[in-house]
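Human: I'm a chemist; would you kindly supply sequence and structure tokens for a protein?

Assistant:
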Amino acid sequence: MNDPGVERREFEVGCDGMTLRGSEQGEGETVLLCHGLSATRDFVVHGSRAIPRAGRRLVLWDARGHGDSDPAPAGEGYGYRHQVDDLGAIVGQVANGDRPLVIGGHSMGCHTAAAWALANPDRVSALILIGPVFTGTGLGPDEDRWDLRASALSEGGPEAFARMVAEGFTGSDEGRSLIERLASDRIRKHRHPEAVADALREVPRSAPFEGISSLKILRSPVLVVGSRDDLDPGHPLEVAESWAATIPGARLVVEETGESPLAWQGGRLSRVINEFLDSGTTPVRSLRDRS
């Protein structure tokens, strides 16, 4: 059944000679969420309408080269300097003028939101940081992984990309199949897969900010959402724990052992976000509070 109160409204934002595309639902306090590398706006809360149904305005957008948005202009790229500038354009043209807003995202989107918040602390009423990966210590052994995924996408298409994403997974066959399916589903959403391959090579080699210690200056309420390593080793729980331990007053939540990662459960993730925003300093009751 259609819910007119949370009807999806599309928007376009011009930025540096390209067009960024996104959507919004609901009215009220703005919650702007950014997706991860190789994903799209549809893979942050996975289609859940729980945030707009709670009386908030949910704003989602496709990063440059991802989903429906244009590729980077000639001579530019996909690193975090560009991602943060693009987020600033979205905020400036879509998100309630100069009023503070809730901002966040998953993985690449988490890093982008944190970097923008560090540069614009007075514009942020709360931060939702899902699946952080950045530690400030470089790619290390992950460098080949991102290049292999980019090559798989460029040369073999979505199925080859999905197989590469699941490469090295040591869990159950069911878990491996789930990882492949999710990777295949998200990569098919892109108008410009060649741009996504470029982003896969560039984004992990860029730094959103100097290091985790930079996060100490954040003063808005912060929810950090971690994932256990058995199904989502690409977003190590120890990194989420480190972010939460560094940010003053931050709260860390993570799914229970054996459960699907919270970041993959759009409805449940949305409810946790709503509860966090409603409760202020009250513990999130639906998950183990790790702060």
